[in-house]
C-alpha cells in the first residue's frame, strides 16, 4: 500500500480516504466484538506460571520461620525475614528498612496518605489540619494515584515528563518554594504508562531536593522493578543510596508488590523506607492490623528461594507478553508511522504502551473504538482529574487479551486513529 501524508491531501481526497476507512470500520463493527485493551492485567497464561506455588508445598515451612517463629499465629507485623529478604533482593534495600504487606501495594500507598492526613508524618501537622495540600503528578501517569489524591482532596499539579523522567526544574521550583507541596508520585521504572525509566541524573536531582515542607514525600512506586520485556534491562539508580549522600533518606517511601509477578490481589507487597519512617509507619499500622498474611509470605519466599528462580519466572512472563507488545508496535509501525499522525512508546518493560494521537483526537478514538467493541482506557485517565490538556494520550494495555484478539483490536484501533484524525483535519 502507498501511504500519502494526510497533511498533503486535499479536502476531497481526505473525504475519499475517510469513506474507504469507514467501510472497513463498519465491517468490523458488524462482527459485534467485545475486546478489552483497557487495564494492565496479567493474562491467564501468566497467572498459570505461579500455580505451582500452591502445589508441592512442604507444610514444615509453615510451622516455623527460619528465625523460629510460628507464622500461623499473630505477630511479626513487619513481615517474616524470608519475605523481607525476597523484597530486599528486588529493591536493593536492607531488610531492616522493609515492611511486607498483603496483596496490594496501592493499599499501602493509600494507608500512608491516610496516615499523613489524619496523624501527620514523624510528628508533623496532620494534613487535614492544613489549608491546602498539593501533590506533584508527573503525567501521563497512573490513574489510581490520581484517584487517591482526589479522594483526599489533595490538589494535583501536572508535571511534564519526557524520555529522561519528570521535569526536575519544575519540581524543584515547586517543592523548594511551596510548603503546601507534600508529595510527588513517581513510577520510576517502566513507568505507567510511558514505559520510561528515570535516568540517573533525574534520580539524583530528586534525592537532592530541599523541600519547604519537612513532611514532603516522594512516593517511589516501583511496581515494575523487575518486569523486563527484553534481555537489555533498563537500570534504575537506587534512590535511597542517593538520599544517603544528601541526608534526605526520610523524604522517600518506596512501594512494590508481586501483583504482576504471581497473583494480582493475592500476592505480597512491600514498603521500603528509612528506619525512622518504618518505625513511624509501624506505630500507626499496629493500631489497624496485628499482622499480615504470613502464610502467603512464606509461600512466596519458598517459591522464589533463589534469585535465579525469580529471574527465570520473569523471563517466562516476558516470553508470554513480549509478542503482544511486538504485535501492536509492528501494527503501528506499518499502519500509522508512514502517515506521521501519532507517536508512541516502545517500552523495555512494564505493562503499557503510551500512545499520543493528534491533539484533540483521543476522546474521539476512544468513542469510535467503543462503538466497534474495543474498550480502551478512558481518555484523560492518565492525567489528574481525568483531564488530558491536549486530549491526545491513550494508554494501551496489551497483556490481557489473546494474540488473536489483539490482532483484530489493533487493526480496529488503527482505523479509528485514522478516522478521528481525518475528522479533525476536515
Ligand atoms: C504503577 C502502579 N502501581 C501500583 C499498581 C497496583 O499495584 P497493586 O496490585 O500491588 O496494588 C499498579 C497496577 O497497575 C501500577 O501500575
Keywords:
single chain, 426 residues, alpha/beta, Aspartate Aminotransferase, domain 1, Aspartate Aminotransferase, domain 2, 2 domains, 7-stranded mixed β-sheet, 3-stranded antiparallel β-sheet, 13 helices, 14% strand, globular, binds pyridoxal-5'-phosphate
Q: Could you name the CATH topology of the largest domain?
A: Aspartate Aminotransferase, domain 2
Structural class: alpha/beta
The fraction of residues assigned to DSSP E strands is: 5-15%
By oligomeric state, this entry counts as single chain
Q: What global shape is seen?
A: globular
Which CATH C-level class of the largest domain is it? Alpha Beta
CATH level-four homologous superfamily name of the largest domain: Type I PLP-dependent aspartate aminotransferase-like (Major domain)
Reported for the largest beta sheet, the result is: 7 strands, mixed
What is the mean predicted local confidence, pLDDT? 96
**Looking across the biggest beta sheet, what order are the strands in?**
2-10-9-8-7-3-4
Spell the H/E element sequence. Answer: HEHHEHEHEEEHEHEHEEHHHEEHEEH
Q: Catalogue the unreliable spans.
A: none
Work out the helicity level: 25-40%
The figure for the number of domains is 2
Question: In the CATH classification, which architecture of the largest domain applies?
Answer: 3-Layer(aba) Sandwich
Q: Rg, please?
A: 23 Å
